[in-house]
Design a protein that fits this description.
This protein is mainly alpha-helical and 218 residues long. It contains nine helices and seven strands, in the order αβαββααβββαβαααα. It has a single domain, classed as Alpha-Beta Barrel (TIM Barrel). It is 46% helix and 7% strand. Helix 7 packs across helix 8.
């Protein structure tokens, strides 16, 4: 019922992308956004998120954008600034813990709910920014799970966390909030060979897949 109500309201207000559900876990009872997250259990979280996703989309011109991919389990210092050497929280964990717990809800959304958009996170995982991780955004998400939609960064000066060109090369298709700083970074990265024409065109294709999905339901 909740998902269907959200979907109806989005359609009535001409909102095509709902930036939710948030499927991080209740790892710490003091996390500032536990009210957004479903539970401490990855399977329960995944089931809830999948059912809400189906209710929201339900043949409407509305898609969900689950977040925050991945291991964004606390708010304090979740965003660093690579340019100013301001560090972000670093989620240190084994690959088994990452896959069995923190990635599981996202995997379920890709495989069971057919999502067409996903939002990366600001935090680090084992020393590398999550939103700039090729292993996460391309190897696991696309090559292993078969995700074909658009990957969007979290909002708010993402260009100061991960360079725009590096973000696209890692597998992000939309760098938010965009604007001249991001464009300059991507152009410079292209000139320096850090992001290729093929990677840029691929980002456009993924965005078009998301748009096509919305229009097919319209």
């Amino acid at each position: 019922m909740f998902g269907d109500a959200v979907g109806k309201e989005c359609e009535e207000q001409q909102v095509n992308v709902w930036l939710a559900p948030a499927v991080n876990l209740h790892r710490n009872p003091l996390c500032g956004r536990n009210f957004e997250y479903f539970s401490e259990d990855p399977y329960l979280t995944g089931v809830c998120a999948c059912e809400i996703t189906k209710g929201v989309q339900n043949d409407r011109p509305v898609i969900v954008c689950p977040k925050h991919f991945a291991a964004n389990e606390q708010e304090t210092f979740r965003r660093g600034n690579a340019g100013k050497n301001v560090d972000a929280v670093d989620s240190i964990l084994t690959e088994r813990a990452l896959r069995e717990q923190y990635l599981k809800p996202f995997e379920m959304l890709v495989k069971d709910a057919g999502i067409a958009c996903i939002m990366t996170s600001f935090n680090k995982i084992n020393g590398s920014f999550s939103g700039g991780s090729h292993d996460l955004c391309t190897q696991i998400l696309r090559e292993e799970w078969g995700f074909e939609g658009a990957v969007v960064t979290d909002w708010g000066d993402m260009d100061m966390v991960v360079d725009g060109a590096d973000a696209v090369a890692a597998g992000n298709d939309i760098v938010m909030p965009g604007g001249p700083p991001v464009i300059r970074q991507i152009l410079k990265g292209y000139e320096e060979g850090r992001v290729t024409r093929e990677e840029l065109e691929q980002a456009v294709r993924h965005l078009l897949i998301m748009i096509k999905r919305i229009r097919l339901a319209d």
